[in-house]
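step=encode ok
step=design start
structure_in=
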């Protein structure tokens, strides 16, 4: 997964309402790779024969694979490099299947001066259906911190 452009915001650059969206097509290799990395080899993700007999009728992507795309947006675009996860809530609403195009969006909903923290609404959609939603809290570097690193 690669972003065409990396964006780095300092805490002072952020404003409530700022939003970033990332589109990703779920590939079979993504699901297999996530199973290898995470150790979650649940057959609902890997075996078409097994998954066909479940209520989903076929293989589905790991919920945390979808959630990991939120991390990609936070770390690469909004707020971008230097942001540190403090917390994340996740509510899984619907399955994500191989071949689905996921639209992952994060939006700044609150800025907390103390600790330079940002609260972000996070959402993943497949077509019009929300498949995941939640909230993230991240620590965002201040401009002085970024400038100090750049001088080193």
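sequence_out=
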């Amino acid at each position: 997964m690669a972003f065409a452009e990396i964006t780095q915001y300092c805490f002072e650059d952020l404003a409530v309402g700022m939003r970033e969206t990332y589109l990703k097509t779920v590939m079979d290799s993504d699901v297999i790779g996530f199973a290898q990395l995470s150790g979650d080899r649940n057959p609902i993700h890997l075996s078409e024969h097994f998954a066909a007999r479940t209520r989903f009728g076929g293989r589905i992507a790991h919920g945390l694979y979808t959630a990991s795309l939120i991390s990609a947006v936070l770390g690469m675009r909004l707020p971008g490099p230097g942001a540190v996860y403090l917390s994340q809530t996740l509510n899984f609403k619907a399955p994500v299947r191989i071949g689905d195009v996921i639209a992952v969006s994060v939006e700044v909903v609150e800025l907390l001066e103390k600790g330079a923290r940002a609260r972000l609404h996070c959402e993943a959609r497949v077509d019009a259906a929300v498949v995941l939603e939640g909230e993230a809290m991240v620590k965002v570097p201040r401009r002085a911190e970024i400038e100090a690193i750049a001088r080193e």
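step=design ok
step=annotate ok -> The two ends are 29 Å apart (CA to CA).
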